[in-house]
Amino acid sequence: MSTVALLQMTSSTDIAVNLETVSEAFRQLAEQHPEVDLVLLPENWASYGNRDITRESRQSLEQQRMIMAHVSALARRYRRWLIAGTIPFKYNVKQKPWACCPVFDGGGRLVAEYRKIHLFDAIISDRHNRYQESATYCHGSTLTVVSTPVGRVGLSVCYDLRFPEQYQRLRAMGAEVLVAPAAFTRPTGMAHWELLNRARAVENACYMLAPAQVGTHDDGRQTWGHSMIVEPWGAVQACLADETGWLVGQIDLARVHAMRQTMPNQEHRIQTRQRSQ
């Protein structure tokens, strides 16, 4: 058995405020739950709605590296493995950033990263109406599974949840736990968030860990929250609603392996051919 902690927060455009919020949350977690093995942050936790950090400027590069250094220091200080949501990251001024999901070990070392593959370009019935993530970010192209104290973890982000083939490939790569830090809109979250997380868990016989943004943000956007831990049978093991704070739960890999033995659906896949008449 191992223990995970998912942070649900309402990030602002002020990077310094968000960094302080996460630092204080870590301090409280260390006091209240010293048993935690893995910590997870939501999507875009450090700079939600901040446009400067994705611009073509030297300052944006400095901000991105500062955020990475901050979370590395938190992982090292509290000796916790950390999946740090997403952070805009690029190598030079002229390129668009990736939405990068970095993984740090308990010594603060960057041991893996995933760059969000599926970018959210959609028309949604809220006050923002149109979302075009691809105007700001580059698509990633590589899947990542990393060995952690809680098992083999397959990385994904938010909109990836709508693409089940990505998770099937992560399962084939050895994933036992799937993660999806997110910032679901309120309309899509209300309709689909729990459904998607439970489906990805049960069809792959994996735990699903989904830390989320929640509430009304500086630009007026509303995110759904409801950070959750879903067990391999598809039941929601633990969930927050619209409050901020930590969601703490346990991972039992024996349940993963037991389900895969009793229902080995990955072995039952049939290659099909297409025919149109």
Automatic annotation (TrEMBL):
This is Putative amidohydrolase. The keyword Hydrolase applies. GO terms for molecular function: hydrolase activity, acting on carbon-nitrogen (but not peptide) bonds, in linear amides. Residues 1-253 form the CN hydrolase domain. InterPro entries: C-N_Hydrolase (IPR003010), C-N_Hydrolase_sf (IPR036526), Nit1/2_C-N_Hydrolase (IPR045254), UPF0012_CS (IPR001110). It comes from the Bacteria. It comes from Gynuella sunshinyii YC6258. The keyword Hydrolase applies. Keywords: Hydrolase. Belongs to the carbon-nitrogen hydrolase superfamily. NIT1/NIT2 family. It holds the Pfam family CN_hydrolase.
